[in-house]
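User: Reviewer 2 asked us to show a designed sequence for the structure in our supplementary figure. I'm pasting the structure tokens here. Could you produce the per-position amino acids so we can include them in the response letter?
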């Protein structure tokens, strides 16, 4: 009698244990989506091997930001501005955890993102200057919230193109570029 009960228990364990192992060993979104570079300086995404965090832009006019990395998760936020710069903070399969300049975000499918770099002006009124120098003449003025395409970046200045105007803006007045970032 004990051997029959023991046999039934073992058959159940053979079914249950692999299922439990699948649940326990399944990756948790955000837990293992970063891999430290061997030098220890750069954190890289486990999916793309690109640095984290990094900036991208929104490829479409509308994108749902979800609570987790799948269509099964609830939509927490809706991005409605093509070319808006976003910061990728994590990767999981075909999903990227992103945030905007205000810290809002969630998980977005990678197909809605573009590698084209854009920035958003965060200062009230920002002059676009003819040269990367505070004394250079202003060629235009951008209001807070204007999105522009990012060009060359020097130590303290970046060249942007916004609304058909091109000029240099101090990095401190932009979101979507790191303070130490240099670009040709």
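Assistant: Here is a per-position design you can include in the supplement:
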């Amino acid at each position: 009698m004990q051997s029959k009960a023991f046999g039934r228990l073992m058959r159940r364990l053979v079914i249950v244990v692999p299922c439990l192992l699948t649940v326990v060993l399944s990756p948790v979104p955000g837990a293992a989506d970063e891999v430290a570079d061997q030098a220890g300086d750069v954190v890289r995404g486990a999916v793309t091997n690109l640095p984290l965090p990094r900036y991208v832009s929104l490829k479409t006019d509308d994108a749902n930001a979800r609570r987790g990395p799948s269509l099964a998760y609830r939509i927490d936020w809706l991005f409605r501005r093509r070319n808006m710069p976003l910061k990728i903070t994590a990767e999981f399969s075909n999903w990227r955890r992103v945030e905007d300049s205000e810290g809002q975000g969630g998980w977005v499918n990678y197909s809605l993102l573009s590698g084209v770099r854009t920035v958003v002006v965060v200062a009230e009124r920002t002059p676009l200057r003819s040269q990367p120098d505070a004394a250079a003449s202003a060629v235009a003025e951008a209001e807070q919230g204007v999105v522009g395409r990012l060009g060359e970046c020097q130590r303290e200045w970046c060249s942007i193109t916004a609304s058909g105007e091109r000029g240099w803006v101090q990095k401190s007045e932009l979101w979507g570029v790191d303070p130490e970032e240099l670009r040709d």
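For the response letter, you might also mention the following. Residues 13-33 have pLDDT under 50 and may be disordered. The CA atoms of residues 75 and 168 lie 37 Å apart.
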